[in-house]
Please model this.
Amino acid sequence: MPDLRDHPWPAADLAQRIKAQALALGFDLVGIAPAQASPELAFFQRWLDAGYAGEMHYLARNRERRGDMQQVLPGAQSVVVCGLNYDTDYPYSTTQHDPERGWVARYAWGADYHQVMQTRLAALQEFVMTLVPPSVASKLYVDTGPVVERVCAKDAGIGWFGKNTCLLNTRLGSWFLLGELLLTVPLVYDQPVPDHCGTCTRCLDACPTQALLEPYVLDARRCIAYLTIELKGAIPDEFRVPIGQHIFGCDICQDVCPWNRKRQVTTLPELQPRTAQQHPVLAELATLTREEFQRRFRGTPFERSKRRGLLRNVCVAMGNAGHAAFIPLLESLLDDEEALIREHAAWALERLQSLRD
Ligand code: B12
Ligand code: SF4
Ligand code: SF4
Model:
């Protein structure tokens, strides 16, 4: 058998083979961009300067690297961007109003997507390495790397920036996650696609916390996804009522998007909803000990908020649900070991009282 690495492929053939393999590995979208500074990266720097990142200090810590792929992988020439559909055949948050349950963002209903994406990207990386000379370097990232992923994906022709800041694709709407493979080899590149938001402003109008300050600008400090997952301390008072029964993330600005009406669901077993995560019973979550939390949520996106963050959110949701049956549970949380949970339980009891008056 000849070693393919002795016979490097022409850029166009190589690009085609990489894309075909990405699809064979289960990705739903794939595109390739040159690893160069994109004009949209200027927005990222301005966004940080405006303070919209809140406590997500990791974004500012390596801001130069995020703006320059050469610092991430010296000699980088190409970025292969892969998208994974995570939509499943279940209703949108905007149609669900069960006072007994909390609402969880769609991406968090199954296994932790970082793992799901990483396994496939690593397989793609291995495949590419069988086709290129051994001197070619590569790096893969999903979410947590120093890469502004939506910008790479836009450059790779995967979709356009929606006014809700999500990347949208005509076939999948915005229900897809992103991962990248950086390579020090030139490939044939895709072209960005045109904007399809037009005059629509549904996402801006629907956001309950006015986190979308204007089209394409999200103040994370106001976003329910940030408040329920990334924020470690107390949820500012002004957002507790608008959060409603969201206990982990938020999809409202995607649920109302006309591009998400056409549903194409994933068959990947890892991303199928697990009942314990999808629409959990608030009363069950309120009584979880630290050990029970770990057992129930190991390997899931909930590990990020920890018990402390989740129960803080559960208190807020119970207060907003206006359900008198929650009173004894909230009263017992007034004695929780975590001051954060005690404070939010007290707020929720007051809120329930005010709803009954
Ligand atoms: C920090 C972060 C967050 C923060 C801030 C989100 C935000 N909009 O900035 C919070 C916690 C709020 C969040 C929430 C969510 N996130 Co998030 N998040 C990230 C992360 C780690 C960095 C994003 C970032 O750099 N933000 C800073 C802003 C400035 O960058 P940006 O959002 O990419 O915005 C670009 C455009 O808006 C454009 N732009 C800005 N202004 C303008 C103006 C004009 C005119 C134009 C044309 C363009 C433009 O340039 C910006 C870049 O410079 C990425 C992973 C990554 N490493 O990139 C995931 C990521 C963006 N998140 C993702 C997801 C799935 C979500 C949620 C749906 C999860 C949920 N349901 O709770 C929500 C969606 C909320 C929303 N409407 O964006 C996916 C997005 C997939 C997609 N199809 O778009 C990513 C890519 C993770 C992944 N690997 O799949 N997230
Ligand atoms: S995720 Fe929710 S809170 Fe954040 S911008 Fe969208 S609608 Fe607003
Ligand atoms: S709701 Fe409308 S404006 Fe917002 S992202 Fe979708 S199409 Fe664009």
